[in-house]
Amino acid sequence: MAELKLTKVGKTYGGSVEVLKDIDLDIKTGELIVFVGPSGCGKSTLLRMIAGLEKITGGTLEIDGMVVNDVPPAQRGIAMVFQTYALYPHMTVYDNMSFALKIAKKSREEIDEAVRKAAKILQLEEYLDRLPKALSGGQRQRVAIGRSIVRDPKVYLFDEPLSNLDAALRVATRIEIAQLKESMPDSTMIYVTHDQVEAMTLASRIVVLADKGIAQVGSPLDLYERPENEFVAQFIGSPAMNLIPGEIVGTGAQTTIKLDREGVAMSNVATTEADVGLKVNAGVRPEDLVEATGESYLYDGKVALLEALGEVTVLYFEPEHGRDPVIGKLPGIHDDLRGREVRLTADPAKVHVFHQGQSLLYR
Amino acid sequence: MHPALQGLLTIVIGVGGCVGYFYFSNVLLDRVIFPARGRDMGRNINRANMVRPWLFLFPAIFALGLYLAYPVAETLRLSLTDRAAGGAFVGLANYQQMMAEPKFWEALRNNFMWLLIVPAAATGFGLLAAQLTDRIRWGNLAKSLIFMPMAISFVGAGVIWKLVYEQRPVDVEQIGVLNAIYLALGGAEPQTWMTIPLWNSIFLMVVLVWIQTGFAMVILSAALRGIPEETVEAAIIDGAGPFQIFFKIKVPQIMGTIMVVWTTITLVVLKVFDIVFAMTNGQWETQVLANYMFDKLFSANDWGVGSASAMIIMLLVTPILAWNVYNARKEMR
Ligand SMILES: Nc1ncnc2c1ncn2[C@@H]1O[C@H](COP(=O)(O)OP(=O)(O)OP(=O)(O)O)[C@@H](O)[C@H]1O
Ligand SMILES: [Mg+2]
Fold first, then answer.
1. Which residues of chain A does B238 touch, with a Cβ-Cβ cutoff of 8 Å?
2. Is the CB of A88 less than 8 angstroms away from the CB of B240?
3. B111 and B65 within one domain
4. Which of A53, A214, B27, B55 has the smallest number of CB atoms closer than 10 Å to its CB?
């Protein structure tokens, strides 16, 4: 049971280097919140401030209604899993997991019960007497998770827990974490990752950090279907959303955008008379582009590069100078399109409209 | 010739000689003895590569043999002969004579005490200094100050501390810091510290601890920095206090290094000579083995007993040395 409330939280290093500012965030009991964002945007910093390892230089952090800015980490009811596992190398798995309880002067029986229970959940029972160096990466990470479970914290913090694992193990451990969360519906988890798939599959809500602040908070599909701004639009989804510049020519329940390089985009984003002539970017995800059958089309270009993955075919069009190439992702095999001129269009429901970086959907 | 110039010349000749040896012997091997051409080219290259390590090791092996192996053998021989009898073989007579001398047992006992106290104290203080100076802003300055005594020779340190322990008559101003403090704290009259048995040994040990703490600190400080920061943070989150973090997380992780430092200082202690020689010369029950050996060899001119005591020192040092090397190797892995 834990609710977190961040109010205008900020972090400044050494009095001058501002890394985060004015972070407002409410986290409810049982949520699994994922922080994503480009490298160096302050994800770890924010997590470490919640943990108490980093001083909060602005705003307040409340856990269950109590301001904990100056409460030492051990008394915040949090547990943290580090990217590098951070196991105590000189202690056995058992001692690693029981360390916190020993410090807290719990009885021997209590400690033993908690450790055995956690070891069972994480299938570590056989390894309790081993030192960390005699474990595989995945097992080490499970010990690190076990070390937090035994403390029965209110909030679990994960800082890129899977990024040191190889691809297969990462998937397996990700599923384990999802199951773990399922089995502890009341615990709150905050999870930092670089990996979109991790973010999309695990999160109840994703927090996209950028430019010292929060770019958007929402459920994974919210962010995918209704990004508030171009940053989130391009950050979520892979390959990134295409942004094609143009000008609004028709308004109403449906918006018509005349694109700068021929082509017309129709969008279900509503606009008003006043928007006519507005310079906008039409945003279309590569997977939403389909081959145009009729006269009208949204994009027309020559395929510069084609990646046939079997399941899908990714088309990279010749870039216009200074812009990222438009990318299309067609289901199935289209090997014949290599080097060809292709016309594409998209369902108006899938076309986003951005003006000055912000989505017109959220005006 | 000016001595400085002479020194410079020696350095140039020495270094140049080394470089020259490696270069020309290598050339000789590759061009003349096993040239990499002709019919046996491949075989010659292989042979040259087999000889090369020995070629390069030769100067070191030679020097070690000359200055280490030979003296050991010679000392062993001398310890079995008698000077008074013109160098005749006397078996273990020298050892028997030595064992019968109370001064020898005193030296052995004192050495043992040094062995217990100095490495422990120097390592302990060094660890403390390493941990404390790592966190503060002027830590590096403190470190340099603590390390400084390492640069002073043992004899120099002995002289400095002799002044600290100096005593003057009661009505004269004390120049020894220890007596000055002692009187200021209400001591009745100045003490001749160097003549109080047991305490005087401890006062001598202080000098070595003072010197070796810097060494321990530098090595342990590097080891402490090598500890992954995350393990400390994990311990903080687990609720460990500063002392628990230090003793339960940090110290165990650098135990290997602590052992290496400990044994290294132990070796220094077993050979301790200069400090005792300069400060008490083994009087007032402060004798140690190395100084005992020196006494016998150069004051009493008794090479037999002197060599015998040297052999005893070597016997004591060797196992610790072996253990030290074993520990150091384990650390490097
Ligand atoms: N001690 C410090 N002093 C000054 N700046 C710092 C300090 N520590 C971190 N920073 C800066 O804070 C920013 C955020 O760092 P942080 O580690 O939180 O990034 P991140 O989002 O976790 O990145 P990554 O995804 O690469 O882990 C970085 O730009 C970094 O340079
Ligand atoms: Mg990070």
1. 74, 99-100, 103, 147, 151
2. no
3. no
4. B27
Asked if pLDDT for residue A34 goes beyond 70, the answer is yes
Are A53 and B237 an interchain contact pair (Cβ–Cβ within 8 Å)?
A: yes
Task: Say whether pTM exceeds 0.80.
Answer: no
Contact B233 A99 (CB under 8 A): no
3-state secondary structure B48-98: HHHHHHHHHHHHHHHHHHHHHHHHHHHHHHHHCEECCCCCEECCCHHHHHH
CATH number at B274 reads 1.10.3720.10
Q: pLDDT tens digit string along B29-60?
A: 888 888 877 777 888 888 888 888 888 898 88
Atom of ligand 1 nearest to the CA of A160: 27
A177 in the same domain as A92: yes
The CATH number covering residue A161 comes to 3.40.50.300
CB burial of residue B155 (10 Å; 0-12, 13-18, 19+): middle
Q: Do residues B102 and B39 share a domain?
A: no
Q: Is the pLDDT of residue A339 over 90?
A: no
Instruction: State whether A178 and A58 are in the same domain.
Output: yes
Q: What is the pLDDT of residue B151?
A: 86
What is the total count of domains within chain B? 2
ipTM metric: 0.83
Phi, psi of B172 (to 5 degrees): -100, 155
In terms of C-beta distances under 8 Å and separation of at least 24 residues, what long-range contacts does B4-8 make, across chains too? none
Structural domains of chain A, count: 2
CA B241 to ligand 2 center in whole angstroms: 26
Nearest CB to A99; choose among B228, B233, B238 = B238
For the CA of A47, the nearest atom of ligand 1? 18
Q: Which residue of B has its CA nearest to A97?
A: B238
pLDDT digits (tens, 9 = 90+) for A93-147: 999 999 999 998 999 999 999 999 889 888 888 999 999 988 988 889 889 999 9
Residues with CB under 6 A from ligand 1: A 13-14, 17, 19, 37, 39-45, 194
* Helix B102-135 / helix B199-225 crossing angle, nearest 10 deg: 40
A20 at the B interface (CB within 8 A)? no
Answer whether residue B84 is part of any domain. no
Asked if B240's CB is within 8 angstroms of A103's CB, the reply is yes
pLDDT (average), residues B262-271: 85
Q: What is the mean pLDDT of residues A74-88?
A: 90
CA angle A293, A299, A304 (to 5 degrees): 105
Whether A86 sits inside 8 A of B230 (CB atoms) is yes
Ligand 1, atom 5: nearest CA belongs to which residue?
A: A13
Q: Which of B79, B106, B139 is the last residue of a domain?
A: B79
